[in-house]
């Protein structure tokens, strides 16, 4: 049997099948130097602020400080869309994590 990747010989030469620490992937940081975690946290904060804006707009409408229903509906729709998008990102991450758990080592 041949070893096209050279993995069998390299493990034997290193004195066993020791596990090497995982190095970050080359694409783990984007061109601006931000990691995926930073981008995710920024988007979480943005969704939170959109939801707070929508809540404030609804409260202003109820108290009479605001009388334009279109602005309130627009703020609510923006917050809803952003939250649904965030939910889809979460679902995709959970699917990827469960697939990684099923990989046999």
Q: What is the helix fraction of residues, given as a range? A: 55-70%
The biggest beta sheet reads:
none
- Proportion of residues in β-strands: under 5%
How many alpha or pi helices? 3
Please give the radius of gyration in angstroms.
24 Å
Low confidence ranges: none
Average of pLDDT? 81
General form? elongated
Structural class: mainly alpha
> How far do the termini sit from each other?
20 Å
String of helices and strands: HHH
In total, the number of strands is 0
Helix-strand blueprint:
Elements: H1 7-13, H2 36-63, H3 69-101
Helix pairs in contact: 2-3
Overview features:
105 residues; mainly alpha; 3 helices; 65% helix; 0% strand; elongated
Describe, in plain words, how this protein is organized in 3D.
The chain is an all-alpha fold and 105 residues long. The protein has a domain at 36-105. Helices cover 65% and strands 0% of the residues. The chain contains 3 helices and no strands. Helix 2 (36-63) packs antiparallel against helix 3 (69-101). The chain is elongated.
């Amino acid at each position: 049997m041949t070893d096209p990747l050279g993995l069998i010989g390299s493990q034997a030469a290193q004195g066993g099948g020791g596990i090497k620490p995982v190095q970050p992937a080359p694409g783990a940081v984007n061109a601006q130097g931000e990691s995926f975690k930073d981008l995710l946290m920024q988007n979480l904060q943005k969704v939170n602020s959109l939801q707070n804006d929508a809540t404030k707009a609804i409260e202003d409408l109820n108290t009479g400080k605001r009388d334009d229903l279109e602005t309130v509906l627009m703020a609510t729709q923006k917050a809803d869309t952003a939250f649904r998008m965030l939910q889809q990102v979460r679902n995709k991450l959970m699917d990827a994590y469960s697939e990684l758990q099923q990989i046999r080592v």
